[in-house]
C-alpha cells in the first residue's frame, strides 16, 4: 500500500514484477473484451483498442459492465497506483469493492445510482486519499453501448488533486493508439500558450475542425477567447487544479456554411506534469452531450405544447359549463329584479313578497358564485392537505358538472351510501370521477340506452368507486395501455384523461383499473385507502 512508482528516462512508470504481471492480465482481459465485441458485430470495435491503450494512460481509468453491481472488467495501471493496489484481484469485483478505500458507502451509492441512468456524467465528490486527506475528485462517466447487451458498459476516469505529480507525458504515438478512437473527446496541449499536440476524432468532430495539432488553441479556435475557455486553460496551467465543466456551451462557425452552431459538453481540464512534477501541458477529456440537450429541449417544447392544448381544451369545457350553469341563476336574478321593481311601482306594495324576491336573488347569486368557485377549485394547482369528506356529495357535484356537457338523453345515476367517507384531496378525487363519468358519456353517445352509473362500497381497508356505462366497450388494442398517455381517438380529446386519473389515484396510494369491458359496456374502478395517506 502506498508504494511510490519509479520512472525511466523517458518518464514511463517502471513496474515491479507483480505489477507487470497484473498489467499483462488486464491487457489480456481488454483483448478478450475486444474479441467479444467483434464477435457480436459491434461497429464500435475500436473500443477494445481504446481499453488496451488506456493501460498506459496517466489518467486512472476503469471499465465496468452494465450489471446491477457494475463488475470491473479492467483497470489500468494508473488506477491501481492511485488506490495503492499491488495485485489484480480487483478485476471481476463489484465497483463498490474497488471504491471502498476512496469513498464512503453513501457516496458509492450515489455513484452507482448515477450509473444506472446510463447517461454521460461528470461528478465532483469528496474522497479520502491514501494519506487520509479528504480532497475533491472528479469522476467522468462515458457509457459505451455494446451490441447484444441490454445495458451499456461504462468507462470511468478519475481526477484527483495531488495525483498529477505521478502522471507522465505520453508520446504522440501512445496517445494515438490509446485515444484516437475513444468515444469521448480527448485533447492535449503543451506549454503556456496551449499548443495542441493531440486531438482525437471525437474532439475534432465536437469543435468542427480537422486541422488542430501544431496550432495553439487561439490559432485553431479563435472563438474560444470570447467564450472564456482560454482563461480556464490558463488557470489550470498556473495552479494545477483540475477544472470540471458541466453542460458547457461551445459556439463555433460551421466549416462549410459559416453558420454558427452550438454544442454542449461535459469535460475536465487536468494538468500534465513531467517526471520532476513541473506542469508542462494540459489534458482535456469529456463528451458531447449536444444530442442529450436537444432531446431535453424537444421534450420541454412538447410538454409546453401539450399543456397549452390541454388548457385550451379545458377552457372550452369550462366555458360551456359556465354558460349552462350560470344561465339559470342569472335568469332567475333578472326575473326577481324585474318583478320586484314592478311591485315597488304600486303604493302599499306587499313587503313580504318583496323580501322573498330579494332572498331569491340572494340564493341565485350564491348559486352562481358556487359554480364559479367549483370550477376555480378544479383548475387550482395549489397543494391541498388530505381531508376526510363525504363521497356522495363529491360525486353529486361531479355529476352536475358533467351533465351540462353531455347529451340531454344521457342518464347519470349514483348509488352511494351517505355515510361513506373518504380521505384525500377532495378536488383531485372529484377530477378523477369527472374524467371517468365524462368518458362514460362519450361511450354511450351512439347507443340507444344512454346510461352511466356511479357506485361505491367499502372493502377491506379501501373505498372502491365504480363507474359503469352501457356503451360498446373498450377495444382490445386500447385496453392494453389505456392508462398510458397516448394520442386520443376522440376528435376533441388529448389522450390525457385516464393518464391523469392514474397519476392522481396513485398519488393517494391507490390503484385504478378496467374491471370489465364487453359489447354490453365497460366498468372502471379505482380504490383509495380508507386510512389517511400522505399525498406523494
Total count of strands = 19
| Low-confidence sequence ranges | 1-47, 162-169, 491-495
Strand proportion = 15-25%
Percent of residues in helical segments?
A: 40-55%
SSE topology:
Layout lengths: L5 E2 L5 E2 L2 H23 L6 H8 L7 E4 L7 E4 L1 H6 L12 H5 L5 H11 L5 E8 L5 E11 L8 E7 L12 H8 L5 E6 L4 E5 L1 H7 L9 H4 L2 H4 L2 H11 L3 E11 L6 E14 L5 E10 L1 H55 L6 H29 L7 E4 H13 L7 E5 L5 E4 L1 H19 L6 E9 L2 E8 L6 H4 L17 H11 L3 E8 L2 E9 L7
Parallel strand pairs: 14-16
Antiparallel strand pairs: 1-2, 3-4, 3-7, 5-6, 6-7, 8-9, 8-12, 10-11, 11-12, 13-15, 16-17, 17-19, 18-19
Helix pairs in contact: 1-2, 2-6, 11-12, 13-14, 14-16
Describe the structure.
α14 runs antiparallel to α16 (497-507). The chain is 41% helix and 24% strand. The chain has 536 residues and is of the alpha+beta class. The strands form five sheets. It has a five-stranded antiparallel beta sheet. The model is unreliable at 1-47, 162-169 and 491-495 (pLDDT under 50).
Provide the descriptors you would attach to this structure in a database record.
536 residues; alpha+beta; five-stranded antiparallel beta sheet; 16 helices; 19 strands; 24% strand; elongated
How would you summarize what this structure contains?
The chain has 536 residues and is an alpha+beta fold.
Amino acid at each position: 500500500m502506498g508504494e511510490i512508482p519509479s520512472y525511466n528516462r523517458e518518464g514511463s512508470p517502471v513496474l515491479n514484477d507483480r505489477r507487470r504481471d497484473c498489467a499483462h492480465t488486464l491487457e489480456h482481459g481488454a483483448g478478450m473484451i475486444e474479441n467479444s465485441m467483434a464477435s457480436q458485430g459491434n461497429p464500435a470495435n475500436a473500443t477494445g483498442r481504446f481499453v488496451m491503450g488506456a493501460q498506459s494512460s496517466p489518467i486512472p481509468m476503469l471499465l465496468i459492465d452494465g450489471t446491477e453491481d457494475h463488475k470491473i472488467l479492467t483497470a489500468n495501471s494508473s488506477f491501481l497506483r492511485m488506490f495503492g493496489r499491488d495485485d489484480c484481484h480487483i478485476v471481476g469485483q463489484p465497483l463498490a469493492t474497488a471504491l471502498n478505500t476512496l469513498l464512503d458507502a453513501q457516496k458509492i451509492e450515489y455513484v452507482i445510482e448515477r450509473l444506472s441512468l446510463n447517461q454521460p456524467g461528470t461528478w465532483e465528490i469528496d474522497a479520502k486519499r491514501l494519506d487520509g486527506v479528504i480532497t475533491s475528485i472528479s469522476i467522468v462517466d462515458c457509457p459505451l453501448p455494446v451490441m447484444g447487451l441490454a445495458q451499456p458498459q461504462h468507462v470511468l476516469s478519475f481526477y484527483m488533486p495531488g495525483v498529477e505529480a505521478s502522471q507522465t507525458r505520453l508520446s504522440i504515438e501512445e496517445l494515438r493508439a490509446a485515444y484516437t478512437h475513444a468515444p469521448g473527446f480527448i485533447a492535449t496541449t503543451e506549454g503556456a500558450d496551449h499548443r495542441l499536440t493531440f486531438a482525437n476524432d471525437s474532439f475534432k468532430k465536437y469543435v468542427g475542425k480537422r486541422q488542430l495539432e501544431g496550432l495553439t488553441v487561439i490559432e485553431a479556435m479563435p472563438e474560444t477567447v470570447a467564450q472564456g475557455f482560454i482563461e480556464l486553460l490558463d488557470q489550470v496551467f498556473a495552479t494545477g487544479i483540475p477544472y470540471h465543466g458541466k453542460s458547457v456551451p461551445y459556439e463555433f462557425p460551421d466549416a462549410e456554411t459559416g453558420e454558427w452552431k452550438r454544442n454542449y459538453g461535459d469535460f475536465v481540464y487536468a494538468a500534465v506534469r513531467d517526471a520532476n512534477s513541473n506542469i508542462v501541458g494540459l489534458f482535456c477529456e469529456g463528451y458531447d452531450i449536444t444530442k442529450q440537450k436537444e432531446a431535453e429541449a424537444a421534450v420541454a417544447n412538447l410538454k409546453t405544447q401539450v399543456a397549452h392544448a390541454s388548457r385550451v381544451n379545458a377552457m372550452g369545457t369550462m366555458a360551456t359549463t359556465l354558460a349552462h350553469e350560470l344561465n339559470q341563476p342569472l335568469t332567475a336574478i333578472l326575473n326577481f329584479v324585474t318583478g320586484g321593481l314592478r311591485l315597488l311601482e304600486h303604493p302599499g306594495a306587499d313587503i313580504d313578497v318583496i323580501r322573498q324576491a330579494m332572498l331569491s336573488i340572494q340564493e341565485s347569486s350564491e348559486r352562481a358564485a358556487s359554480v364559479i368557485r367549483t370550477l376555480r377549485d378544479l383548475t387550482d394547482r395549489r397543494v391541498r392537505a388530505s381531508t376526510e369528506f363525504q363521497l356522495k356529495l363529491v360525486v353529486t357535484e361531479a355529476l352536475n358538472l358533467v351533465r351540462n356537457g353531455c347529451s340531454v338523453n344521457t342518464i347519470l345515476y349514483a348509488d352511494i351510501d351517505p355515510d361513506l367517507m373518504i380521505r384525500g384531496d377532495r378536488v383531485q378525487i372529484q377530477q378523477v370521477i369527472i374524467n371517468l363519468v365524462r368518458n362514460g358519456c362519450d361511450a354511450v353517445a351512439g347507443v340507444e340506452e344512454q346510461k352511466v352509473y356511479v357506485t361505491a362500497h367499502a372493502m377491506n381497508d379501501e373505498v372502491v368507486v365504480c363507474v359503469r356505462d352501457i356503451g360498446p366497450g373498450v377495444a382490445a388494442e386500447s385496453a392494453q395501455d389505456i392508462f398510458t398517455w397516448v394520442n386520443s381517438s376522440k376528435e376533441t380529446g388529448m389522450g390525457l384523461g385516464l393518464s391523469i386519473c392514474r397519476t392522481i389515484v396513485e398519488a393517494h396510494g391507490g390503484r385504478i383499473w378496467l374491471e370489465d369491458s364487453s359489447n354490453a359496456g365497460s366498468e372502471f374502478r379505482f380504490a383509495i385507502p380508507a386510512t389517511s395517506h400522505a399525498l406523494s
